[in-house]
Automatic annotation (TrEMBL):
PANTHER family hit by this protein: VACUOLAR PROTEIN-SORTING-ASSOCIATED PROTEIN 36
Pfam families to which the protein is assigned, alphabetical: EAP30, Vps36_ESCRT-II
GO biological process: protein transport to vacuole involved in ubiquitin-dependent protein catabolic process via the multivesicular body sorting pathway
Family as reported in the entry's similarity comment: Belongs to the VPS36 family.
Protein name in UniProt: Vacuolar protein-sorting-associated protein 36
Assembly, per entry: Component of the endosomal sorting complex required for transport II (ESCRT-II).
Gene: VPS36
InterPro entries membership: GLUE_dom (IPR021648), PH-like_dom_sf (IPR011993), Snf8/Vps36 (IPR040608), Vps36 (IPR037855), WH-like_DNA-bd_sf (IPR036388), WH_DNA-bd_sf (IPR036390)
Annotated signal peptide: none
Subcellular location, record wording: Cytoplasm; Endosome
């Protein structure tokens, strides 16, 4: 209670009322006081508490408030605001208590309105209008303000806000640097091609093996001169060139994967190879859809379930079926084959293994058994005997 001081209830120059509440009781720390059932007024500079039976008011300057906490009310208790305060200045007017062992006070709201008052109080403290208004209200001394700003929780919050602002500025600068780097990446690709051409021109001094090795070092990070939308006028032309790039870059990888690769894996691999010139899923899909039309070594295939893959144009579906049936026949007496079993034995993605088993079922080469253990497949002995 030593932070409160006796004052006149009238407003000073530059002071305006923000909100008010009735039925307010004052606490000194956690201890109840005799100041009960009063009217509390919040201005842009201080709080004023007054009882109808008293001619004077109690004032508390907002500059002393370091932290605000809210206590929920219970069955027999009212909601409260807990205000952690810094030390009052020596020049402050006299109050109801000369000194107090507590560094916080409580405001009890008997008639509700605690949350609304807290919001208005936090807004008034954040605006700190008392710093820009000439007033005769006793303020905290400059030395005390400096200590509370640096050592109090309010000072910590301001330091965090300043740090966040600095971080946002650093992120903005980082994105600007990234844009510049993307622009320089095109120049680096062009530079690598020029250097390679110059090395070829001096083939008498540099061996062909050195030329290949040097070029591989320069282009090991991704695709040489990736196709971009800015290079071509129409979307169709862009997708046609992009389809050729996809087929050239992924043909070997698709063959090593057994001739089939999920479209999601195609998207990840091509973007990793292109580096900074990333593609959208829509562009990858449109490019894959025109592969068959362009007679490229890779084409797109869609299973009946909707799963989309890229496969080699010369993929023999009969051999794929034979490989699947070989696994089914081998495990006929072992409780059948699940998608996980086929994926492990053939080195396939789980989704693709399931599609192969479903395709074998559609061709009447396999039958399914659904139980509590999951979905398993067996060779279709009825079809083979018929």
């Amino acid at each position: 209670m030593d932070r409160w001081y006796w004052c006149d209830a009238s407003l000073v120059s530059g002071e305006k009322v923000e909100t008010s509440a009735n039925g307010i009781r004052l606490y000194d720390g956690d201890k109840k006081t005799g100041y009960d059932d009063g009217h509390l007024v919040l201005t842009n500079q201080r709080m004023l508490w007054r009882h109808e039976s008293k001619s004077t008011s109690l004032g508390l300057h907002l500059s002393l408030i370091v932290l605000i906490e809210e206590e929920a009310g219970g069955f027999t208790s009212s909601p409260k605001l807990v205000l952690h305060l810094s030390q009052p200045p020596h020049t402050q007017s006299a109050g109801p208590v000369a000194s107090s062992p507590h560094s916080h006070i409580k405001l009890s709201f008997k008639h509700g309105g605690c949350s609304a008052f807290r919001q208005a109080l936090q807004k008034a403290i954040g605006e700190r209008q008392w710093e820009s208004v000439n007033t005769s209200i006793p303020l905290a001394s400059k030395g005390n303000q400096g200590r509370s700003a640096h050592t109090g929780i309010l000072g910590i919050e301001r330091a965090i806000q300043a740090k966040q602002k600095e971080t946002n500025q650093n992120i903005s600068r980082a994105f600007e640097d990234l844009k510049n780097l993307m622009g320089l990446a095109k120049d680096m690709v062009l530079l690598s091609r020029n250097i390679s051409n110059k090395i070829r021109e001096h083939s008498g001094e540099v061996s062909s093996d050195d030329t290949v090795q040097f070029r591989s070092y320069l282009l090991s990070l991704g695709i040489d001169d990736p196709v971009t939308r800015d290079t071509y006028g129409s979307a169709n032309e862009y997708h046609h060139h992009l389809a050729r790039e996809l087929a050239k870059a992924l043909e070997q990888s698709v063959e090593e994967a057994g001739g089939v690769m999920l479209l999601s894996e195609v998207y990840c691999r091509i973007n990793r190879a292109r580096g900074l010139e990333l593609l959208s899923p829509e562009d990858v899909l449109n490019a894959c859809q025109v592969m068959k039309k362009l007679a490229l070594p890779l084409i797109m295939h869609t299973f009946e379930s909707g799963v989309q893959v890229i496969q080699t144009a010369t993929l023999d579906q009969k051999k794929v079926m034979e490989a699947t049936m070989e696994v089914l026949n081998r495990h006929e007496m072992d409780g059948g084959v699940s998608a996980g079993d086929l994926a492990r034995e053939c080195g396939l993605p789980l989704l693709l293994a399931r599609e192969r088993l479903l395709q074998a079922e559609q061709c009447a080469e396999a039958v399914r058994d659904e139980s509590s253990e999951g979905l398993r497949f067996y060779p279709n002995l009825f079809f083979s005997r018929a």
